[in-house]
Fold this protein.
Amino acid sequence: MLRSQQAVGRTVTRTIRMTLEIEKTLQHFSSVEQVSVNQLINRALKRWVEWDYYSERFGYTSLPTAVLPKMMKYISEEEAAELGRWTAQNVTKEFVVFWFKEFSVKTLLNGVALLSSKYANRWDYEYVYDTEKHVHILVLTHGMGRKWSIYYENLLRTAFEMLSQKIEPEVMENQLVVRIPAST
């Protein structure tokens, strides 16, 4: 049971009921992590609000990270590229619209950032906007090999082409750099 007690600044105090087993587990993790139980609960609620609620409805599943590069070993570079294009055409737009309620360059960039988040953990993500050259620069570091770089290159190329936006990708063994000229 949750009930609001009082608002303090930008926070709200709530009282919750939980099983004794959950309380004991939270106390244990609080000690291990050296944070308060309140911080653990807030972290869990934040994850649910930012990721779990939507990902469960969109049909995401969890896999151990080690499985992904192993799966890619069984297909060719051409098949990795085709899979990237297929994903863009059949999943990416729906994903972006589901989360952000529209499909645009801005929301696609936000979707790429979301997938790099602490929740999805698909890649390490860096973004800069070069104001002199008027270009968005994305750096996706994934550590899963060239075929994954090819997959991500084709996924992003196709997704941005769906928005009539060209990209300039640079494929590396464990990283993809994408330059996206800003619309004028």
User: Anything to note?
Assistant: The CA atoms of residues 43 and 49 lie 10 Å apart. Confidence is low (pLDDT under 50) at residues 1-8.
